[in-house]
Amino acid sequence: MTHNLKGIQNYHTLVIHSTDNSFGFGYRKNNNIDSDKFFIKQFDNDLCNNLIVELNKFISKKNLQKVNKISVSIGPANFNASRLIVVLARTISQQINCPLDSFSAFQIMAKRIASKNNVNANRKSFWIYKRLKRKGFIAGKYEICNIEGNNANLVIRETILPKVIKELKSKELFFEADYKDEEDLIELLDLSNKNLLNANVDSWQKVLPLYPISPIN
User: Fold this and answer.
1) Looking at residue 198, what is its pLDDT?
2) Are 123 and 134 within 8 A, CB to CB?
3) Name one GO biological process term (predicted).
4) pTM: predicted TM-score of the whole model, two decimal places
5) Is a pLDDT exceeding 50 seen at residue 3?
6) Rounded to 5 degrees, what are φ and ψ at 94?
7) Cα separation of 116 and 103, whole Å?
8) Cβ-based neighbours of 97, under 8 Å, separated by 6 or more
9) Which residues touch 171 (CB under 8 Å, ≥6 apart)?
10) In the chain, where are the structural domains located?
């Protein structure tokens, strides 16, 4: 069932994101960036309980009930954090009957990386990678769909979901993953609001953490 937002004047977006060593929340009203509110914290020894505690501090129950859309990053990042924030996002989405969608951490940083490295019309496709502690890499592929205007208007599509690869091919364009807490939360809010009208209230069931290897690797 598609979530019908026609006629809604006030909508609120909540996003939840994690990196290799931190987690954060973002909140926006009516797609107005001036209303943006953020919380970012480094991991500690009890991430499971602290997620709930910090979320309760970040957003009131009253405002949480107003949320029309939730988006979550699903990794690749710290495996335990990715799993926990996805569980949290799914639980909230189900409880308040609110659409939930998800984006890989690499897709969230893709526009920033493309802009920083001046990826242009001649090299529309590029990879983002993360080196594994043992052998190989996790990498996803991205394609620039729109390069008109300035870099802020870049539209980038994820063509290959991050997966394990043995080596980086020299003929292709590769950039190392670069997590930026607040910048990634802003981009996640932007991506979430672009998908607002395509949201589905049952979509929480399809959102799962992305981690191409086992947690012990």
Assistant:
1) 59
2) no
3) proteolysis
4) 0.88
5) no
6) -70, -40
7) 21
8) 201
9) none
10) 12-104+180-206, 106-176
R_g of the chain computed on alpha carbons: 17
CA-to-CA separations, 20 to 79, 82, 138, 178, in angstroms, rounded: 8, 9, 14, 10
Could you identify the residue written with the tokens 């991205």? 142
d(C-alpha 81, C-alpha 40), whole Å:
13
pLDDT of 67 = 93
Domain 12-104+180-206 coded CATH 3.30.420.40: yes
Specify the pLDDT at position 147. 57
What confidence tier does 172 reach under pLDDT thresholds 50, 70, 90? confident
Angle at 60 between CA 54 and CA 62, to 5 degrees: 155
Question: What's the residue count for the chain?
Answer: 217
For residues 86 and 94, give the distance between their C-alpha atoms in angstroms, rounded to a whole number: 12
Tell whether omega for the bond before 212 is within 30 degrees of 0, i.e. cis.
no
Question: What amino acid is encoded at 142 in this protein?
Answer: Y
| Sheet order of strands, 12-18 included | 32-42, 22-29, 12-18, 67-73, 100-103
Each residue's pLDDT tens digit, 118-160: 887 556 799 999 998 888 999 999 998 865 555 557 889 999 9
Q: 162, 76 in Cβ contact below 8 A?
A: yes
Element (H, E) at 185: helix 181-194
Q: At 177, is the secondary structure helix, strand, or coil?
A: coil
Structure tokens at 83: 């799993």
